[in-house]
Design a protein that fits this description.
This protein is an alpha/beta fold. 41% of the residues lie in helices and 22% in strands. It has a five-stranded mixed β-sheet with strand order 2-1-3-4-5, sandwiched between helices. β1, α2 and β2 form a beta-alpha-beta unit.
Length: 156
Amino acid sequence: MIEVGPLVRVLVQRRQTLAVVESLTGGLLAATVVQVPGVSAVFRGGLVVYATDLKASLAGVPPDLLAARGPVDPEVALALAEGGRVRCGADWALATTGVAGPDAQDGKPVGLVFVAVAGPGVAEVRCLSLPGDRPAIRAGAVNAALELLAERLGAQ
């Protein structure tokens, strides 16, 4: 599991902020970030948009994109990250969406996860096929999102 402390230190040094938008992780990403003492200097907050309609109304994902692609989609993941960045007033935002199981969703298999980051001049999404049960998939999604941020910050 990636350590969050070094990410927080880089953000503090750069005077940049972070927000999160979560679907399948249901707040686990935010809970992981806030374990770091002093994180309040950089963490703006987050949105848990588990229901598809909230992805549009709270996170700003275009409803036509959700209608066309469904909630488990790379473009939706990017829209979640950018929407969270804007709506939370942060320099950086991470987003998670996917299928944690136990059953497939809209034809998408259990373990299919998209994590995205949006930041200054950066918009990137990763597709993952995570093994394991529901807790393992959620934890893997959190770790992958944090790894993506670490790479973009040059903090690894």
